[in-house]
Fold each of these.
Amino acid sequence: MRNHRLNEPDRLRRDARIAGLRDFQTPSLEAVEQRRRQLWQRTATALALVAALVVAFAIVPSDRLAAPGTGRILFAIVGVGGGLFLWAFHKETALERLTRSLTDERVLTAALTNRLHEVSLLLDAGKQMNAHLQMDELLDTILRSACELLDATGGSVMLVEETDLVTVCALGRDAAEGQRMRLGEGVAGYVAIRREPVLIDGHADPALFPGLILREPYVESAMSVPLVHRAELEGVLNVNAPIGRSFTEYDLRALAVFSEQAALAIANARLYEAERAHVAALLDLRKRREVG
Amino acid sequence: MTGAHHRPRVLIAEDDPDTLVILRVNLNAAGIEPMLAGDGHTALERIEAESPDAVLLDVLLPGIDGWQVLEQLHAKGNTVPVIVCSGKDNIHDLQRARELGAVAYLVKPFDIDRLIEVTSEVVGLRQGAPAAGRGTAADADGVELA
């Protein structure tokens, strides 16, 4: 049966058997390495013995070598040496396959663990965001959670107000709060219009982002994602990388996933605010009627 | 390396565990020996240590991303054929992949049969006639890197 027709556990078991790992209950790279060392130590010892015998025959006086059967013995010793090497090579091939398979298993386990970690972080962030209905607290939570998730040093949340984007929450650059820019201006404006995440590595290109205001201090790496809920643009979330670190497309994807939950939470908080305003208006109306 | 092994070996650099498993099963069934890497560092390590016959490289990888892996391979002069897998279908990324020496650019979500076809072609190119290590392979959406 060819290799690729065996399933992974069967391949592992077969290679472990060939490699001489009889007690291979728990597959581990360490056990394979130990077996590899043991195999080559034993092979080296046996080959040294074979070499010693060959040398011994070589220094025996030539008239003794002429004795009947001596040639065959020498041939047999060399044959045993060759066979031993082939046997060790066969086992080494199985050990190599085992190492590769076990490395693959480790990679899969690590990928699963990473994914679980990400999902867990996103769930936690979602829980924290959904625990707030007050807009101020919510925006603060969104920004802090995004920075924690991506190991960012700062950023801002901008909300849509008619045709403008207004910075309503900022971390690291408090001066940015209250800043207003038109939709389509700068990186955030571009993100709002195009509704697609943007990763900036190095200086942003003013040709690509009309109306871009160059910031001081200069941010080496930053990301901006739109906050969209049910096709409605709520705002833009921006995060900045610490000095010496660059965000990657992988980080951008994580922030994009995070932004979906953030947009939902903002939409809920806006609904809550509208409901509160509505109730307050009704109460006010009732009070006026009672007075009247 | 290929001569020493019965089957061509392809490194799958991908962070999504489901995709890793799906690609592993399908490449195995196609007679290609898959090797796995879940992040950019592992991908670079395994490429250097085990010299696969080709690499299926996802752009979105934790640690160092697919572009950085490609840049490092390019900088070191490593000629392993790389098939870039990306969710973005734009000329800028395609151009970037070409400049960094990738042999094909597959847009996600890809048709698994087409991916196997392209991968087999790339591995075949390396084993077979063309003198250059990098040949031409069409991607799932008809984009071609020369």
Note: DSSP finds seven helices and six strands in chain A.
Amino acid sequence: MFQFVVKYLGFLKSAPLFPQVFESFLILWTLISRPVILDYVDDIRSKVLTWPNTSVSLHKYGGIQFNHGNKEIGHIHGNGILDIILSRKLKAQLIKEGLAKPHHVFPKSGWISFHLYNEKDKIMALELLHRSYSKILLSN
Amino acid sequence: MGLKQNMRDVFTPQFKGFFWSNLVGISIIGITKYLMTENGSGVIVFSEFVVIPILMGMISGWFWQDLGLVTRRLALYSCYNSFLAIGLSFIFLGEGIICLVIVSPLIFCFMLLGTIFGKGIYKKNNDKLNVSIVFILAVVFVTDTLSKHEYENEVSDTIVVNAPPGRVWQNVVAFKRINVPAQFWLFRLGLPSPVESTVTGYYRGAGRKCIFSNNYVFDETISTYDISKNLTFDIVNQPKDPEIMNHIAILRGQFLLKDNGNGTTTLTGNSWYRLYVFPIWYYDIWAKSITRNVHLRVMQHIKELSEK
């Protein structure tokens, strides 16, 4: 369903409330189908907030956004899809290793999408977020 | 002292979240419904299905903000609250069960949206922001409620009957009872489906009745009686069913028969309706689907009778 909406209704992402409404549907669907994903998202959120100068906000296209100052570390959707911007080199490496996929909307950008399914994925998601966080720290 | 303690035990933040959000929601909808019916429009605007659930979610989120609820628990509470709101709408607002089934995705979704949104903004501890958002919601609600809402649409369906128009026509004007169980899921869930049609005569101006499975009757008057070609009828009275009342008005129905010249007939069923529930982008999907299934049930029956 997520892919269908992104592919065919993606043009509505700028419509007021639409991404947030869709995000609510995703959370409800996840609550019914894979509720443990919501716990993983909470765990990730709690962990990221222990890193210095991090904060969370609502992502403009739905989901929770992790920030360092004004810069986005990444964001995670209600169905457990984590989107992170990394260097193109690291992106290519992660995709080659099968650890991530090109971003579900912008496949040619530096963004990657990582799907959370289990506890191991949660650890990997934190690892990826930390890499993005470190990249921001270095650029600062 | 004991009473105070008991009150504290009952009026926990969880309870207050459920209680106050539903009290506010039901009150606003009840008052609006009363005022809208009083001034004659009887329209249920999109704000009642969108703004009110968001507001209810935000109210409950306000009471639950210090409970440290994880997302799973918060979403679950929001679902309980939606079930409660739907149940209260059934009891206090007299809504039909099928209507509530139809509206429930909006309630669940926007209630959760309000709860999550509330959780996000209360954390910012910015009273100006909180008041502004409630103010914006109020402005949207009032503007939407006072705006004129009109929407009419037509649904058209076609099937080919393996019989000449003359034989099909005999079953179009009036038809014997449909005994085949309905397949459409809403009919199986209890939404009345068409079962029989009777007429007082075979001429323009004659009365026609479309009888539904729960014995509700749509009274119709034949406005066009063009033998073997066109039967058009205006709906002059529709049943006072809570599933229909103040939600949809069926205005006119029509059967068009086209001779295909090979012993078959193309039968087209048209219906015109007016919606009293908004947003259209949501309810028209349902209205079309239901109307289409009413058409197909009747037209399939006509086809079977004509092909015997």
Note: The longest strand of chain A covers residues 71-76.
